[in-house]
Structure formats: C-alpha cells, structure tokens
Amino acid sequence: MSETPPGLLASVADLHEMELARAGGADIVDLKQPAFGALGAWSTEALTAAVMLWNAWGTQMPAHARPALSATAGDQPMVPALMRAAAERVATTGVPIVKLGLFASEHAGECVEALAPLAARTRLIGVMFADEGPDFGLIGTLGRAGFAGVMIDTADKKSGSLTEHLDPLTLSQFVSEARRHGLITGLAGSLRIDDIPGLIGVGADYLGFRGALCAGGRSGTLDPLRLGQVSARLRAPSDLPRP
Ligand SMILES: O=C[C@H](O)COP(=O)(O)O
Predict the structure, then answer these.
(1) What is the ipTM of this complex?
(2) Looking at the domain 7-234, which fold is it?
(3) What's the CA gap between 107 and 172, in Å, rounded?
(4) Which of 38, 130, 146, 150 is the least crowded, having the fewest Cβ atoms under 10 Å away?
C-alpha cells in the first residue's frame, strides 16, 4: 500500500484546460479528446502546441512543480501496425508519456510486443478496461515490453464507473501485479469525488478524472471549482490509510 495518496491525473481537451489543470494541481495533465471516445486523441497540430506550452512551463517553474504530460493515442483497433503508427504519431510530437488503449482482443499481446521498440524511447502506458473483463495476464507482457505503466479505465462511459465493475480487492491485485513487473499504476473510469476515499487504500500511483472535473459531463468543459474539490479530496489527510 502506498504511504502517500495517489497523484491526480486530469484529462484535458484543449490548451486552456491544460492551463486550468496545471493551476488546479494536476500531477499529470493528460491530453485527451473525450468527444472522440474513451481514449480520443488530439490532432498532431494541437499536440505540438501542447508540447510547446509544457516546455514553456519548464522555464517558468521548478521541475518538481511542473506536472507530467501525457496524451492518448485514440481508440485504435487491436492491429499491431495500426497501434504502433498511432503511438508513433503522438510520440513524434514530443509528448513524453503516451497512453494506449488495450481493448479486449486476442491480439492485445501482439500489439504490446509491437510497441516494445517505441517503449525503449518513450514512456508508454497501457490502458486496460474494467468493463471488458481485463486480462491481468497482460500486465507481465507490458512489463517485458518495457512499458512504464498500466492503467484501468472504462471503455463504455455509459456502462458504469470503475468501482461498479471491479471491487477494491481486485483493484489491489491489479496494483500488486503491476508493481511486481515494475509498472506505475493508475485507476480511472467515471470516478466521482466520493470514490476517492475507497480507492486510496488500493495503493495506485494515480487516480484519473475527466467527467467529475467538468460542467456538462466529460465532453463538457473543465470546471476549476470541481478540479479543486477533487484535488483537495485526494490530498485530505483524513483519507490516508491508517498505519
Ligand atoms: O484517464 C482518465 C480519464 O480521462 C477518465 O475519464 P472519465 O473520468 O470521464 O471516465
């Protein structure tokens, strides 16, 4: 179990939201276009502009205060060449962390293996889906391919939240298995502020949010007030696991 509360991953849809997420205390600013799916991707031009902004932050604040930057590669079919091309497109813009959806498929393992050369140059995060019966056997494949981390999210945002699909014990097993393979971990999937206390004990490195941060649902606009509430709840000492 982590001794510190999980970090906050905030998914953002444009550069303005990127600034709001930084100001609101996100530990990872995650470039995602929610209107295009669970892991909807930004355009190449927009990603390039985001990297420029992130680089500018690096000149304005100490390194420890600058959030990490990730981006999703889109809801791709589980075809190794297509996955690799999608990941390369994002990585080429200079985004340092690329998130890749591992949808339920007998080809998921091949897709992960095809990404090993890129994983040697860029931090890759595999995203499994709680509403698709995730195969934890894939975690070892991710570790061997050199991925930096693994997350669980939900693919169908109408299917219920992460906590409706997987119980805390199963999520703890996911975190333990990922740690055993040297992977950082994240949990997401229509999480609400009230899910936070129950998930802190699971011990994941990050909790990811989009819908709970927005006015008008996940395809709406990021609301600084909601972001502040989620950030404060994550850091509330009363939610820390007791020794
Ligand atoms: O990576 C985190 C996600 O963007 C979570 O989105 P959601 O809270 O709308 O399911």
Answers:
(1) 0.98
(2) TIM Barrel (3.20.20)
(3) 26
(4) 146
